[in-house]
Specification:
about 270 residues, outer membrane lipoprotein receptor (LolB), chain A, 13-stranded antiparallel sheet
């Protein structure tokens, strides 16, 4: 969420970096809903103008018994003016997932478009809206988590201030407005200094806490854009954990729309 992409992603992002502003402090006014919207809009505004980026990622899956498996991936992101961002994720290893490609077109208000290429089947599978709450490649991230953050997809409510990761943060409740979400709500903690996402809680369709995402090791790029290099998603209901470690961030690499074509998924290398 909030612009940390796998994603989306993406994962996530899908929602997790900001543009730095000199000596700026957001003045919250109105009721809790208006305050929540103001915080979300500021976080979104601070992550505009990066155009394109790519990075490498190591995904570690840890089961309830503490056993781990590791995957190596590449992620490309494209900022789209007037719509949600596009992302392409490619698995390089291990052998059983090598060549798997995931393509996501986020949208501001309409349903996101997502496709998964499975080399063993040699076909591109469209992820239906009803299935986006399902797990992404055995991880604790869902397909839904991998879309970029778009302000108009949620209702907001300011819940107060808390200290998270040694940061003074705004605590904001987010209620999905789009159909078939796997969540009744999410709760986000964004630091007051840079509006970076520090923590996110996800509540399932019964309203119970499902999982918690923590983001750490933020680094600044181009003097404007923050990216979290370490994030973890813990599932409280099955005791599984997914760790993501990002590296080799590059911006302005000349990525074009052609690289985000669903027909090109079969040719990912």
């Amino acid at each position: 969420m909030l612009r940390q992409k796998l994603l989306p992603a993406a994962l996530l992002t899908t929602l997790l970096s900001v543009v730095i502003q000199p000596a700026y402090s957001l003045v919250l006014q109105g009721d809790d809903q208006q305050k929540g919207i103001a915080i979300a809009k500021e976080a979104d505004f601070r992550d505009l103008g990066w155009n394109d980026s790519q990075s490498s990622m190591v995904m570690t899956l840890r089961n309830k018994q503490g056993e781990e498996s590791t995957r190596n991936l590449r992620v490309k992101n494209l900022e789209v003016e007037g719509d949600g961002d596009k992302s392409l994720t490619v698995f390089d290893s291990p052998k059983d997932v090598r060549g798997t490609g995931f393509l996501s077109y986020s949208h501001i208000t309409s349903a996101d478009d997502q496709w998964l290429y499975l080399p063993a089947l040699k076909r591109v599978k469209r992820i239906s809206s009803k299935n986006k709450s399902g797990p992404f490649m055995g991880s604790e991230f869902s397909f839904e988590d991998l879309a970029s953050f778009e302000v108009d997809k949620y209702d907001y409510r300011y819940l107060g201030d808390e200290v998270i990761n040694d940061q003074d943060t705004y605590k904001v409740e987010m209620t999905p407005l789009y159909k078939f979400s796997g969540y009744t709500k999410m709760v986000a903690w964004m630091d007051k200094s840079e509006f970076r996402l520090q923590k996110m809680e996800y509540y399932d369709r019964k309203g119970d806490l499902l999982k918690t995402q923590m983001l750490k090791n933020y680094r600044l790029y181009l003097g404007k854009y923050w990216r979290a290099h370490d994030t973890e998603m813990i599932n409280h209901q099955n005791s599984k954990l997914t760790l993501l470690k990002f590296d080799d961030y590059e911006f302005g690499t000349g990525i074009t729309e052609k690289e985000f074509n669903k027909n090109a998924l079969k040719r990912v290398r």
